[in-house]
Structure prediction request, 304 residues.
Amino acid sequence: MTEAQARLTAALARVPYAAFLGVRAELKGDELTLVMPFAERLIGNPLLPALHGGVVGALMELTALSQLAVAAKSEKFPKTIDIGIDYLRSGRPVDTFARARVVKIGRRIANVQAEAWQDAREKPIAAMHGHFLMPEDTPN
Amino acid sequence: MSEDSPAGYGEGETMLERVRALVHFTPLAVAMGIELTRVERAKAWGKAPYKPEFVGDPDTGVIAGGVLTAFLDQVCGTAVVAAMDDPVIIATIDLRIDYMRPATPGRDVLAMAHCYKIGKSVAFVRAVAYEDDPENPIAHAVSAFMINSSGGRKFGANFKEPRK
Prediction:
């Protein structure tokens, strides 16, 4: 495990809500993928069944926060200012993955885009963009 | 109520019972302990209890933004159901949330959602999350929902692999 992976794993392990979602991080170089294994409690529509939009949004937000922590080489997560989520396909009862791209880190505010997918990366089930307030001690 | 809907989804004598049945029918809402406290035509009030497993910042005990995302999505969807005479399946098209301040650690979060426009295909909702007073909001949400989103799709449709 690289130092960055260890730092991120430790940071995520300290977030109880990440554990509630069952989310884990996979970091290759500086490319981060968050994995949310399917669980019954994540369902929002039991008829199809489909994942709850809220947990897909939460996964992408957590991915954005984690990617920012990696980019800023910080163990502290930024604070979310706002997010916008587009739901593109219903989430099937299988594992979900998410990646985030830091568009810009300013002195105080960062702009991030994220996507979540299941069967194929090129067929995202949801997309997110958001603004985040960077921790004050971030070296920039 | 369409005849092929299984018992439970949106059924009940009063509107509050019908939308409560919907919430109890949603595994995530049950897992999170989300409760519906009040319903009026096109309006819904809910409560998300404070739970240690919802914490997003272990240094302060503040709940994760994702908890509010899921909670607000649920309450917004409930307001859409409360705007319909015969509840049908809905799905979130988009959800935008502004986080104004951290939720107070240890306190339950309340939310109020209003479906201010419902058409044949799309419903529009706004919602606010707070502890005591909607005038002192934790977060504000604006969302759009697709009405009758499962259209011709059969129950269990999502178990199938998508076509390549």
Summary: DSSP finds three helices and eight strands in chain B. Chain B touches chain A through 49 residues (CB under 8 Å). The beta strands of chain B are 35-40, 43-48, 55-57, 62-63, 90-99, 109-118, 122-130, 139-147.
